[in-house]
Every structure is written in C-alpha cells, then in structure tokens.
Design a protein that fits this description.
By secondary structure, the protein is mainly alpha-helical. The chain has one domain: ABC transporter involved in vitamin B12 uptake, BtuC (Orthogonal Bundle), CATH 1.10.3470. Helices cover 76% and strands 2% of the residues. A two-stranded antiparallel ribbon has the order 1-2. β1 and β2 form a beta hairpin. α6 packs antiparallel against α7 and α7 runs antiparallel to α8. The longest helix is centred in the N-terminal third of the chain and has 36 residues.
Length: 370
C-alpha cells in the first residue's frame, strides 16, 4: 500500500475547501490568494509601505505640533519657560494621544472587517464604541474616580461595555454557523441606539456639570495634560496591538470564510475570541480617554486596502500607521478651523466618514443584504 506523505495530503485541499476558495476568487473583496505567494508579495509591500508611512506619520506629527491656536516658534521655546511648559504638557501629549487613538481604531477596524468579512464593519457601526461609551458614562455619572490596582475604573467600565456589545452583536448576527452581514450591521446599529439612549438617560439624571462633561466627551476630545494618562493607556493598548498583529495570518485566512480557514489549520473559535478580547480592550481604552470618535476604523482600512492590497498581514500595520497620521491631522484641523474656538475631533471624523460610509453602503449593497 503506498504511503501518502503528510505534506502531500495537506497540499491537496478538500472539495469544500476548493469550493470556498473559488467563491472567494469570484466575488469576495477579500479575495483568496495562494498563501506563500501572498507572503512574498506582502513582505515586499511591507518593506515599501512601512518606511513611506513612517515618513508620512512624522510629517503629520510635525504639522500637529506646529499648528495650533498659536503656531510653534522654536526660538521662543528656548528661552520662554511658559511656552515650553505649554508645549510639553499640552500640545505634545495631545498629538501623541491622537496618534495612539487613531492607530488603535484603524487597526481594530481592519481586524473586524476581516473577521466578519464585511467592508462596512468598524467599532462604531458594530456598536462596540456605543457599549464602551455607556460603560464609561455610567462611571462619570456615579463620580467613581478610583483605581483598581492602578487601573482607572473608567477603563474597566468601558472595556466591559465594549465586550458586552461585541458579544450581543455577534450572537444576534450568527446563525447556522454563518455571520449574516446585514444582520451584523443591523445589530450594531440597534446596539448603538440602545447605548445612546442609555447615555442620554444618564445625562438627564446627572447634574449639569457631569452632564456637560459627558456631552463634551461623547463628541470626541483628545484633551490631555502631561504624560501620566498616556503611560496608563499604553499599558493596555500595546498588548491589544500585539494580539491583533499575532493573529494577522489567521484573519487573512478567515477573510475567505470559516470553513476554508479551518481546513487550512486555523482554530476559528479561538481566533474569534482573541480578536473580540483585543478589539474590546483597545476600543474600551480609547473610548474612555477620547470619547466616541467615529468612522476612523471605517475610512482608514479602505484607504490602506486601496493602496497596499487585501493581505491582512499588510493591512493591519499599514492601517495602524495611516490611522495615527489621519487622526493627528483631523485633530489639528479641529483645533484651527474655528479658531480661537475648537471643534470636537469626533465631529471632524464623522463629517469625513459619513459620506464614505454611504458610498460604501451603496457600492457594496450585496454585503448589507440580510
């Protein structure tokens, strides 16, 4: 009896796997390609894209640092202690926070779009931001400013709200082993509406000071003083980023479909759980410090996909860098467009993201059908 080698057996896909791959080739925007070929092309794209995007990010950071209510003057910083203190305690931390929040939301958006195989998925449209906002608003109204083992309780509440929203949306949209794209979006919209109603109720019950604090925070604000909050945020964001990047290959295969990914060795349920936890952690932390900044996770991954292709292993790091640069520039625009007043950065991103979302909804109608 001839002995069939394990390599040969693995190289010969099952009939169901071939069918799924053919479907992906014909219609899915996350088109499947041979894994080793994608890896080689992806490495070449990354070697080209990462330095280019790093240069773009540095330019965006310089613009964010230079432009503001008063433009930066290096000669003044040398001998003016007040200007130096304002720069290092207000402007620099704010620009860094904008980069961290933008990178986080964009990478989560890219991961969720690949996981759910839906180009309209992002933390805002799936209700993740709404759940986090509800949890954080509850803490603000109750006036709980304590920390648990050094972790601000608002981080914990926002994380709990976001992971609960992810769980509910997934359970509502998952039926018969398939995630229905239309049901996914509809569930996310409903969760967002419910969360918004809860936040409005909390605002109504709160005193005027806390109600105004919630309103300002909900519109998106990146006001930060000093670096203390940035260090606390990084403690949670870095593990979430690393977890997303570690599962980039599995997400790339899941973009084909669960059946095909499982046939190629992906532990689908474990990958889903890890992406849920990482996304909820990242979104919970970013919402707790920056409010509900909408559509960053929708716009940026599509731009990265247009520029650098469909490979999720390329898409995640490029979305990360593009998201950082995008939100730094959006926050800079929010600071100067109605100077000396300031627009909430969430307003700027929503004005940019709303038309893009409607265009995607129209051009990808087959993904929104229930």
């Amino acid at each position: 009896m001839p002995i069939v080698s394990p390599i040969k057996t693995e190289a010969e896909p099952t009939r169901s796997s071939r069918t799924a791959r053919n479907k992906a080739r014909r219609g899915n925007i996350f088109a499947w390609q041979k894994d080793d070929g994608v890896s080689a092309r992806g490495s070449a794209k990354l070697r080209f894209a990462i330095p280019l995007l790093l240069i773009g990010l540095m330019i965006a950071l310089c613009i964010g640092l230079y432009i503001g209510y008063q433009n930066l003057d290096l000669t003044v910083l040398r001998h003016d202690s007040v200007a130096r203190n304002v720069f290092f305690r207000l402007r620099l931390p704010r620009v860094i926070m904008a980069a961290l929040v933008g990178a986080s939301l964009a990478s989560v958006g890219a991961a969720l779009q690949s996981l759910f195989r839906n180009p309209l998925a992002d933390p805002f449209t799936l209700g993740v931001s709404g759940g986090a906002a509800l949890g954080a608003s509850l803490v603000i109204v109750l006036g709980i400013g304590v920390s648990v083992v050094g972790v601000p309780i608002i981080f914990v509440a926002a994380f709990a709200g976001s992971i609960l929203a992810v769980f509910v949306v997934y359970r509502l949209a998952h039926t018969g082993g398939v995630v229905l794209p239309g049901a996914l979006l509809l569930s996310g919209v409903v969760i967002n509406l419910c969360a918004s109603a809860g936040v409005l109720l909390l605002q109504y019950l709160a005193d005027s000071t806390r109600s105004l604090q919630i309103l300002r925070w909900l519109m998106g604000s990146l006001d930060v003083v000093g670096f203390d909050l940035i260090w606390k945020v990084l403690i949670f964001l870095i593990p979430g980023w690393l977890l997303l990047m570690a599962y980039a290959r599995d997400l790339h295969l899941l973009a084909i479909g669960e059946e095909s990914a499982a046939s190629l060795g992906v532990n689908v349920r474990r990958t889903e759980r890890m992406i849920y936890v990482a996304s909820s952690l990242i979104v919970g932390v970013t919402v707790s410090v920056g409010g509900t900044i909408a559509f960053v996770g929708l716009i940026v991954p599509h731009v990265a996909r247009l520029l650098f292709g469909q490979d999720v292993r390329v898409l995640l790091p490029t979305s990360f860098l593009l998201g950082a640069a995008f939100l730094v520039l959006a926050d800079t625009l929010a600071r100067v467009v109605v100077s000396p007043n300031e627009l909430p950065v969430g307003v700027v991103t929503a004005l940019a993201g709303g038309p893009v979302f409607l265009w995607l909804l129209r051009s990808r109608r087959r993904y929104s059908a229930i």
